[in-house]
């Protein structure tokens, strides 16, 4: 097996005296979709932030395409930053309310002056808006003029602006209405395929994870208690916590009735 | 006579931006000991419906019409004093966020005692006894000691158990629960759903459960009503609604939900567009701008909620202008994994899309 795109060994972090992440080992292969699931407070979001080097680990190692990331200086991390991106649960809180949507999506392009020419950047912004299913003519509008689902599209457009290799999506659909959730899940799947993205999906909803992910890691109290390819994990869960999570999901059928 | 009979309920709010038609002519019954689930997305009017039953949407800018009969008593025009007796008495209420419904500076025990004594003429000591009994009933261990806890000392799931204890302390005949498990972890949710099921059985109370989550509702309810844009677009026994739905919006909801109980499969079939604004509702059938099967006339004519099959069970009702055979053919194709276009072809409705908005 070739070297994974990203791997972590014995990753740990203490926040406010508590070990929020406590010895996590995991890897992500290029092109795959990894789901990290668990209940609130299990450390899944913190793990994602550690993986993206948004937070310094107390201990452990993180390798990106064969290179150690822990201990690198800000400047040395710049290429890594360019190749990774994140989208969040609350698309409103993560968008600057005073900037036009075009400016928000184009911010990473401007920062890196890529492309160098302003008009070309504007074209790229409109292209990105089209890719995520937004009307490119709306680039001058403000975030509040968009619905929750559209704001998540804006977040996605900004995240993929610099054509990252790795996208981490933290509960990207949990604040959205059911019908809108499905639109965004399909969009994530399309973008992943079209751009050859490697995707890490952080979610509490196991059905969402099953729908999108090739491999799944289940977290509890800061540790990964089970990791397996999705089919195995969902059909033959081994860890009691995985089984408890699966058993707890309400099924779309009358209680006690057989599936139709 | 049903325990709760709601007829032609309409709720409008006058705002600076215009009139919000939150609920637009809703009728349903909840039988003694029965359980009805109301499902819908944000803005569908499901929560406003529940709140209005309890007189909690009364305001100077609110226009409320219709009828809400509870155990034969009209609640809509009833004086506030009388409603206060009903709320927390014969009708228990559980909301999504227990933190905002519990008083942060009072112990759990004090709040339970207060809730009980507001409706029953009992001593403080007897009420405290009852409060401990209730905490025990909702599965809180070491109940007597927990009476002295403050809400912030409890986990989210525990707080919701306290809310449920408070809602049922006076043995209501009807429990209204609005998103009672939303935002809770899935294992906590499962435990609370179990609790609600058990309480329903043990106390023989009826349940009106409001949720965005079709699966949650299916776990607890005998009957489901699907709301869209302030109206019920389909309702029926839970099994019928899940297995033989006849409204395109219900199909859309079902097609939007990733499933754990089936092999990881096909692409989701989301509903295009987004729910309409409550101020500017679409003409005709409110779902027509998002409906793949809408025809031109559906933009002009609004569909009434009528029995899906006039010959058969009157309990399954649908508000859709498509013919019954077309609806059945479309669902047959969709449930087998077809997309709307394929479904239309297979249903012989290839031209149906022409009138699309």
What's this, in brief?
The complex is a heterodimer of chains A (260) and B (357). Chain A is built from nine helices and ten strands.
Structure description:
With 260 residues, chain A is α/β, with parallel strands linked by helices. Chain A has a domain of 172 residues: P-loop containing nucleotide triphosphate hydrolases (Rossmann fold), CATH 3.40.50. Chain A has 9 helices and 10 strands. Chain B is α/β, with parallel strands linked by helices and 357 residues long. In chain B, the strands form 2 sheets. In chain B, strands 6-7-8-3-9-10-12-11 form an 8-stranded mixed β-sheet, sandwiched between helices. Chain B is globular. The interface between A and B is large, with 40 and 42 residues.
Describe the secondary-structure layout:
The complex is a heterodimer of chains A (260) and B (357).
Chain A: E1 6-15, E2 18-28, E3 33-37, H1 44-51, E4 59-64, E5 67-68, H2 74-83, E6 84-87, H3 101-111, H4 118-131, H5 148-159, E7 166-170, H6 178-195, E8 198-203, H7 206-212, E9 215-220, E10 223-229, H8 230-235, H9 240-248
Parallel strand pairs in A: 3-8, 3-9, 6-7, 7-8
Antiparallel strand pairs in A: 1-2, 1-4, 4-5, 9-10
Helix pairs in contact in A: 3-4, 3-5, 4-5, 5-6
Chain B: E1 4-15, E2 18-30, E3 35-39, H1 46-53, E4 62-70, E5 73-74, H2 80-86, E6 91-94, H3 98-101, H4 108-117, H5 124-137, H6 143-146, H7 156-168, E7 174-178, H8 186-203, E8 206-211, H9 214-220, E9 223-228, E10 231-237, H10 238-243, H11 248-256, E11 306-307, E12 317-318, H12 324-335, H13 340-346
Parallel strand pairs in B: 3-8, 3-9, 6-7, 7-8
Antiparallel strand pairs in B: 1-2, 1-4, 4-5, 9-10, 10-12, 11-12
Keywords:
heterodimer, A: 260 residues, alpha/beta, Rossmann fold, 6-stranded mixed β-sheet, 4-stranded antiparallel β-sheet, 9 helices, 10 strands, 37% helix, globular, disordered C terminus, B: 357 residues, 12 strands
């Amino acid at each position: 097996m070739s070297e994974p795109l990203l791997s972590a060994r014995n990753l740990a972090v203490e926040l406010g005296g508590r070990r929020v992440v406590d010895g996590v080992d995991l890897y992500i292969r290029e092109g795959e979709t990894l789901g990290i699931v668990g209940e609130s407070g299990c450390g899944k979001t913190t793990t994602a932030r550690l993986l993206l080097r948004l937070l310094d680990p107390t201990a452990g190692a993180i390798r990106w395409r064969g290179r150690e990331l822990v201990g690198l200086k800000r400047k040395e991390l710049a290429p890594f930053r360019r190749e990774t991106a994140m989208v969040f649960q609350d698309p409103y809180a993560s968008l600057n309310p005073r900037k036009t949507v075009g400016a928000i999506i184009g911010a990473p392009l401007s920062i890196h002056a890529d492309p160098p020419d302003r008009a070309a950047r504007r074209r790229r912004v409109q292209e990105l808006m089209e890719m995520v299913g937004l009307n490119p003519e709306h680039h001058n509008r403000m975030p509040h003029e968009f619905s929750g689902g559209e704001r998540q599209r804006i977040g996605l457009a900004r995240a993929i602006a610099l054509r990252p290799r790795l996208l981490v999506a933290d509960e990207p659909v949990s604040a959205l209405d059911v019908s809108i959730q499905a639109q965004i899940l399909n969009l994530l799947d399309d973008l992943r395929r079209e751009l050859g993205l490697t995707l890490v999906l952080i979610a509490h909803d196991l059905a969402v994870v099953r729908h999108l992910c090739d491999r799944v890691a289940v977290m509890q109290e800061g540790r990964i208690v089970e990791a397996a390819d999705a089919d195995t994990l969902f059909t033959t869960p081994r860890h009691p916590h995985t089984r408890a999570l699966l058993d707890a999901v309400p099924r779309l059928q009358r209680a006690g009735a057989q599936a139709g | 006579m049903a325990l709760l009979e709601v007829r032609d309920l309409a709720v409008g709010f006058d705002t600076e931006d215009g009139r919000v038609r939150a609920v637009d002519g809703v009728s349903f019954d909840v039988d003694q000991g029965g359980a009805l689930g109301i499902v819908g997305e944000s803005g569908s009017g499901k929560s406003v419906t529940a709140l209005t039953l309890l007189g909690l949407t009364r305001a100077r800018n609110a226009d409320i019409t219709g009828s809400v009969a509870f155990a034969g008593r009209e609640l809509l025009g009833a004086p506030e004093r009388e409603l206060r007796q009903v709320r927390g008495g014969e009708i228990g209420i559980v909301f999504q966020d227990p933190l905002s419904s519990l008083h942060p500076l009072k112990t759990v025990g004090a709040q339970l005692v207060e809730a009980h004594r507001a409706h029953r003429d009992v001593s403080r000591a007897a009420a405290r006894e009852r409060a401990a009994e209730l905490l025990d009933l909702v599965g809180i261990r070491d109940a007597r000691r927990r009476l002295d806890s403050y809400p912030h000392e409890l986990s989210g799931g525990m707080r919701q158990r306290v809310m449920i204890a408070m809602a049922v302390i006076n043995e209501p005949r009807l429990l209204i629960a609005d998103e009672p498990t939303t935002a809770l972890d899935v294992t906590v949710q499962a435990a609370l759903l179990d609790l609600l099921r058990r309480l329903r059985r043990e106390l023989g109370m009826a349940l009106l459960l409001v949720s965005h989550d079709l699966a949650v509702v299916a776990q607890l309810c005998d009957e489901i009503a699907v709301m869209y844009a302030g109206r019920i677009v389909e309702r029926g026994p839970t099994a019928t609604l899940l297995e033989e739905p006849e409204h395109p919006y219900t199909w859309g909801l079902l097609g939007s939900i990733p499933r754990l109980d089936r092999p990881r499969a096909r692409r989701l079939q989301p509903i295009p567009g987004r729910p309409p604004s409550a101020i500017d509702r679409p003409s005709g059938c409110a779902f027509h701008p998002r409906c793949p099967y809408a025809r031109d006339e559906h933009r002009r004519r609004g569909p009434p909620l009528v029995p899906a099959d006039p010959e058969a069970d009157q309990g399954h009702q649908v508000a859709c202008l498509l013919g019954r055979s077309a609806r059945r053919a479309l669902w047959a194709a969709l449930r087998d994994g077809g997309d709307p276009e394929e479904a239309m072809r297979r249903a012989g409705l290839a031209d149906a899309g022409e009138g699309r908005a």
